[in-house]
Amino acid sequence: MMLDWTPRTFQWFEAADAWTGYSKKLARLLWERVRVPGTLLDMGCGMAFPDFALAPHVGEITCVDRDERVIAYVQEKIKSESISNLRALSANGEEVQGQWDTVMCIFHGDKETILSSYLPLARDTLLVVVHASRAGNIAPEGYKVRKCSGVQETSDFFRQQGISFDLLETGIEFGQPLTSLQEAQDFLRAYSRKDIPQEAVTAELESRLVKTGHHQYPYYLPSVKQFGIYTIRRA
Fold it and tell me: How far is CA 167 from CA 32, 45, 146, in A?
């Protein structure tokens, strides 16, 4: 699923991350697997929340994404938080040249590109985070969108290519706080197939939506993001 980076998408991600602490929890898992904390490259960085959490521990971080809107967001956040060791570049990942101690791909890239284009950029470690399965976990059954890859097919492919790896399979709560019932419907539709009918949206929210009592976000849609973290060492 390709994200459409609109102002609302940015708001949803910011709210979800602030509510759940997802990125800081993911960053801790990634940091445990960084062997050389000199330089780090994040391919397909999106809003780069894990990179901001890792910045105090790494010498220099380079964030790359081909979407200029998301890179502009990251650059503004770098400036507003006065972070000197983090830079953001708008580029196609397959065109990036150079080497970094650690390269990360978090829910980004097909498995073939990861090995052919991203692994050579890593001097020491490649960290690959993929969804547990190719079916999304927000939409109701029958209307889920397909992810670019899942753990089973990624593991099979790496083994076929003779790649040794360590794999951690885990999950972190990354639900969505919501300001209204209308926003809850809009959010569920944004992460479902385009042909989802209104009755399916209503039924899903009736079964899952939680009232929080919070003044700004009176509703919350729980969702545990299940994924695998691959650690591939170059030596």
Answer: 13, 21, 22
d(CA 157, CA 167): 14
Per-residue pLDDT tens over the stretch 53-105? 999 999 999 999 999 999 999 999 999 999 999 999 999 988 899 999 999 99
Sheet holding 219-221, edge to edge: 176-178, 219-221, 210-211
Q: Give me the CATH topology for the region 7-176+223-233.
A: Rossmann fold (3.40.50)
Task: Count each helix (H run) and each strand (E run) in the chain, helices first.
Answer: 8, 10
CA triple 70-101-78, angle to 5 deg = 30
Spell out the domain ranges in the chain.
7-176+223-233
pTM over 0.90: yes
In sequence order, the 6+-apart residues with CB closer than 8 A to the CB of 224 are 137, 171, 172, 173, 174, 175
Read off the pLDDT of residues 117-138 as tens digits, 9 standing for 90 and up.
999 999 999 999 999 987 778 9
Which one, of 124, 143, 144, lies nearest residue 135 by Cα?
A: 144
